[in-house]
Write a structure and sequence with these properties.
Order of helices and strands: HHEEEEEH
Helix content: 40-55%
Structural class: alpha+beta
Shape: elongated
Strand content: 25-35%
Number of helices: 3
Oligomer: single chain
Strand order of the largest sheet: 1-2-5
Radius of gyration: 19 Å
């Protein structure tokens, strides 16, 4: 399912136009993104939790040259499915 399909399902489910559904989806995604940028945890009960995790710097190996390389620390977005979502997809 891509964004267009999701917008159509939201519009049909909520009884609103596709334009309004797209605005709502874009606003929800932007709010989640802004929260993660600030370092907040976003919990949607029954769906799941979005959070930011920090990966420490580490050493890796270039598979082509077999030389050791330094991999910089970075932040990554994580999602953990809620119980209702996990049960629904079983």
């Amino acid at each position: 399912m891509n964004k267009t399909d999701l917008v159509e399902k939201i519009a049909a489910g909520a009884g609103i136009s596709k334009v309004d559904a797209k605005k709502a989806l874009d606003a929800a995604v932007a709010a989640i993104k802004d929260g993660l940028v600030k370092g907040d945890k976003i919990a949607l009960v029954g769906f799941g939790t979005f959070s930011v995790s920090e990966r420490p710097a580490r050493e890796g190996i270039n598979p082509l040259t077999k030389q050791k390389i330094k991999i910089a620390a970075k932040k990554v977005a994580k999602f953990k499915a809620g119980a209702e979502l996990a049960d629904a997809i079983k």
